[in-house]
Amino acid sequence: MAIQDPRLLAVKVLARVEEGASASAALDEALVKAEMDARDRGFATELVDGTLRWQGRLDYQLGQVSDKPMAKLDAPVRAVLRLGAYQLTLLERVPAHAAVDSSVKLARRLAHEGAAKFVNAVLRRLEREKETLPFPDRAENPVGYLAVVYSHPAWLVARWLERFGMEETEALLEIDNTPPPVTLRANRRWVTREGLQTILRMHGIETEPTPISAWGLILPARGNPREMEEYREGLFSVQGEGSMLMVELLRPGRNRDGWDLCAGVGGKTTHLAEWTDDSGSILATDTSADRLKVLAAEMSRLDLHAIRIFHSDARTYPIEPESLDYALLDTPCSGTGSLRRQADARWNKSPEQLSGLATLQRELLEAAARALKPGGILLYCTCSLEPEENEEVVNAFIADHPEWQVEPAGVKLETLPADAREPSGCVRLLPQRHGTDGFFAARMVKGSG
Question: Fewer Cβ neighbours under 10 Å: the N or C end of the chain?
Fold first, then answer.
């Protein structure tokens, strides 16, 4: 039987995430099977995203009102408690009695009567004491304070505090807990940004230009832009502003041969094709066949023909050396610059990942470099804020390959803020400063050797 209760759907998704499922995939799958109207679907989504985003803070508060450690509870009971605590402490429009009563019913349904009584006792105590429960002391334990209050892993908070200081780290953590804006990328082959804005306004949809990218529009109203007729007609794509900027920094010319090594679902790949007016050829490789299916569908929607898709690891893809004019390497990374987009992502990171990812990033960079002609342009980019994945990878690569040099990527992009331009010539976008996802980019040019 299809699920009709948004809270039941949410708690089942949360339990699946604990088992290792992706939150977005588990939620999408559950919503497809659910029998709910748009309002209930939106509420279920808010419950899942909010509970996961604030999980660290919720667990800290629940730990103060429960006589059993959260880690010792059965997964369904833990999920029910977090869901109830989120509604009690952070979702003001839900009455306390509704948050508690619905959680007790869920515990009874998913576990047993004893679990229902336990959930009832814990959440009622939380409701009584939530205003007086202490957080770690800000002055004596700044890492603990920020990690709990803003619900981030302590190891990541410690790294950012050391690099950015207290004020800016707090601003970064705060923006991570806000939904990102919905941004549209005008299809420059068919319409200007101003033209798309006018078309949307004629249909009663007001937008604002993105401040840095010359091709983006911010869609203030919530909803699914992929349901718009203009989307189906190919007049725009849905893409974050920082992601758009990577192609604008690369600026490939027309009738050139290029390679998107980690194409994914093709946001940057299709932007590349639009940028070159669908001329030349673009090799698109990725290790995920599912992601490449999305790219193929996007090619059809946008009527693009220059892209050639291959399901392959770019490190071993058989390509003739020095045969290409440009390459885009949006490499797999920790994603610490885009945590606001995936509610569960922050809990799946660890400091140990960084060294392993840096090795992969360097191997992909070597593959891209071999494929490019002298004079070829390579844009290396990540959505990571961590130096191990960014400048350290680029600096080590250039030290081993003196024929390659960083070319100041932002020089020709007048809208790029001054504080996004690094002295090294690289570009660094920070969520707390620029309102985009966090991105690092190095535009490199290959000399004659």
Answer: N
Amino acid at site 183 = T
Is residue 338 situated within a structural domain?
yes
- Catalytic residue selected from 262, 333, 381, 383: 383
Residue 353 lies in a domain: yes
Pair (228, 248) in one structural domain: no
Cβ atoms of 360 and 418 closer than 8 Å: no
User: Residue 184: phi, psi to the nearest 5?
Assistant: -110, 140
Residues 373 and 343 in one domain: yes
DSSP reduced 3-state for 134: coil
Q: Do 155 and 202 sit in the same domain of this protein?
A: no
Q: Is residue 34 domain-shared with residue 87, that is, in the same domain?
A: yes
> What's this model's pTM, rounded to 2 decimal places?
0.93
- CA 432 to chain CA centroid, Å, is 15
Res. 1: pLDDT tops 80: no
* Residues 194 and 297 grouped into a single domain: no
Indicate the SS3 state at residue 324: strand
How many domains is the chain built from? 4
pLDDT digits (tens, 9 = 90+) for 157-192: 999 999 999 999 999 999 999 989 999 999 999 999
Taken in order 243, 239, 277, 300, is the CA torsion positive or negative?
positive
Place 449 in a pLDDT band, splitting at 50, 70 and 90. Answer: low
Angle formed by the axes of helices 23-33 and 6-18, to 10°? 140
**Domain assignment of residue 436, yes or no:** yes
Phi, psi dihedral angles at 224 (to 5 degrees): -105, 105
SS3 category, 211:
coil
Per DSSP, the three-state class of 227 is helix
Cα–Cα distance list, 73 to 78, 93, 121, 129, 166 (Å): 6, 28, 15, 22, 35
Distance CA 285, CA 315 (A): 10
In this structure, the strands spanning 324-330 and 257-260 are parallel
Q: What is the pLDDT of residues 8-17, one digit of tens each?
A: 999 999 999 9
Structure tokens, 89: 């402490």
Amino acid of residue 132: T
What is the CATH classification number for the domain harbouring 422? 3.40.50.150
Instruction: Clarify whether 383 is annotated catalytic.
Output: yes
**Residue numbers of the domain that contains 152:** 147-176
Together in a domain, 280 and 376: yes
Residues 83 and 124 in one domain: yes
Greatest alpha-carbon pair distance for the chain in Å reads: 74
Clarify whether residues 256 and 404 are in a common domain. Answer: yes
